[in-house]
Specification:
mainly alpha
Length: 130
């Protein structure tokens, strides 16, 4: 693999890691926005509230940014390596949920995080170096 190809693979990996962080932050904002919606009796009122709630709008926007970064990453990266890294979004959401939303961490959540990170590590080690 040439130096240019290695640099493109590294850039793709960094972009996907950024996608995971942005996607996790988007999930937290969407949850906060959903909690702020309150009661909306009609479908139209609910739709308007979903569009006009700042946290929801910010979360949707961050998903858009994350999608653009993913497309850029996939242009030069290996899907079989990058997509498992995208699963780190679940890890970040769980961690952010504990710190931002004050949800509880339990042994099952911790085991899930360890399983995801371990799976990503195993898949990453299985990639050919050439």
């Amino acid at each position: 693999m040439s130096t240019t190809e290695q640099a493109q693979q590294r850039r793709s990996f960094i972009l996907v890691v950024c996608c995971t962080l942005i996607g996790a932050a988007a999930q937290i904002l969407i949850k906060k926005g959903a909690d702020a919606l309150g009661e909306n009796p009609t479908m139209v009122q609910t739709a308007m509230a979903m569009l006009l709630t700042p946290a929801l709008f910010a979360g949707y926007s961050m998903y858009g940014v994350s999608t653009v970064l993913l497309v850029l990453a996939l242009r030069h990266g290996q899907l079989s390596l990058l997509y498992p890294v995208f699963a780190m979004t679940y890890v970040w959401v769980t961690i952010l949920s504990v710190f931002v939303l004050h949800e509880t961490m339990n042994p099952y959540k911790l085991a899930g995080i360890v399983t995801i990170v371990g799976g990503i590590a195993v898949l990453g080690r299985g990639q050919p170096s050439t």
